[in-house]
Amino acid sequence: MEQVKIGIIGCGGMGTHHAKTIHAMEGASLVGVADMIDEKATALANELGTEAHTDFHELLPHVDGVMVCTPPFERVDVVIGCAEAGVHIFAEKPIALDLATADQMLAATDRANVIMMTGYVLRFTHPFQILHDTFAAGQLGRLVNCWSRRFMPFDTSERWYGDQAKSGGVALDFASHDIDWVRWVGGEVQRVFGKVDRVRPGIMADEHVHALFTFTEGLGAIDDSWAPGLGISSIGLVGSEGAMIVGADGEIRKKIGDGAEEIITPEPGETIQAHFARCIRDGLTPKVTGHDARQVLATVLAIQESSQTGEAVAL
Question: Which residues, at least 6 apart from 272, have a Cβ–Cβ distance to it below 8 Å?
C-alpha cells in the first residue's frame, strides 16, 4: 500500500493523539510535527522518532497532507498557508469562530483544489455511525426525531476554552459534534430554537446548550453541558418504521415495526485518521468537509442568536 505522508501542526492534546495514531497506522507515515513552542514539538518528535519544527512551513515540502490541531483562534493563517502550498488539510473542529474566517479558509482550499476535512469524529464513532447508516439505508422509514445529549463535567476556568471569544463556548467547541451528527442524519437545518447558559459563578464562556432543529422532514435536538457534576449520554433516532436508542452504557437497542427488539453489537470501523489518508490516496471527497463544518458554525451562531432573542432563527 502506498504510504501517505502526513505531518502534524499543533502538538497539544489532539495533535499528540493524531500523531500517535498516524505513527501506528498502516498506509500512512508520520514525517514530522510542528509547534511554535519548541519543547512541545521536540518532545513529541523524540517520542515518535520523527522531525520537529517550530515553523510549520518547513513541513510542507515533505508531506501529502497535514492535520492542523491549533486552537480555532490560531488556525486561519496555517490553513491558508498549507492550501497555498498544495497540501491536503485535516483541520480540527470548529472550523472557525466566525463565518468570514471560515470563508477565507474555504476559498483558499477550494482555489487550491486540496482536501479540506474537519474533525467531526462522531461520523466515525459507534454508536453514532450505526444509527446514521441504518437510517440512511431506509430501515427506519422517514425521520421523526433524532437527538444527542452529552454531559461532560469540565472546569474551563483556567483554560482557553473558558474564554468565549477564543472557544465559542460549549455550543461551538463541544456540542458542534452533536450538531454535525443531527445534520448528517436530517440534512440541512431549516430553523433553530435554542438556549445557552453560564451556570457556575465566574465562568466566562457558555457551558450549557439545548437546541431544537427542524429539517425538511422531522426534528433534531441536542443537549450538551460542561456544567453538571454528573456525566451522561443519550442518543437516539425515531423513524416512521422503527427506532434505535442508545443508553448510557452504550448498548444499542433497535426495533423495526412489529419485530422483536434487537441489541446491536458494534464492530470496529475506519478511523478518522485512516479516512483522511485514504481520501488523499484515492482522490476522494471526505465524509465530513470544511463546507459541512461551515454549516455547523452557522447553526451554532443561530443557536446563540435564538438564545439572545428568545425566537426561532431561520437558516
Answer: 119, 121, 123, 124
d(CA 111, CA 105): 10
Provide the pairing of β-strand 28-34 with 52-53.
parallel
Grid coordinates given for 85: 502550498
Query: Residues, the chain, total?
Result: 315
DSSP code, position 92: P
pTM of the model: 0.97
Helix, strand, coil % over all residues of the chain, rounded to 5: 40, 25, 35
- CA-nearest of 246, 244, 265 to 255 is 244
Q: Which domains does the chain have, with CATH numbers?
A: 4-120+273-288 (3.40.50.720), 122-265+296-314 (3.30.360.10)
| DSSP letter assigned to residue 80 | H
pLDDT tens track for 34-75:
999 999 999 999 999 999 999 999 999 999 999 999 999 999
* Kind plus residue range of the DSSP H or E element containing 223: strand 219-225
Q: Which residues contact 164 (CB under 8 A, 6 or more apart)?
A: 204, 205, 206
For 160-188, the pLDDT digits (tens) are 999 999 999 999 999 999 999 999 999 99
Type of residue at 126: H
pLDDT per residue as tens digits for the range 22-31: 999 999 999 9
Which residues fall within 8 angstroms of residue 161, CB to CB, at 6 or more apart? 154, 167, 173, 205
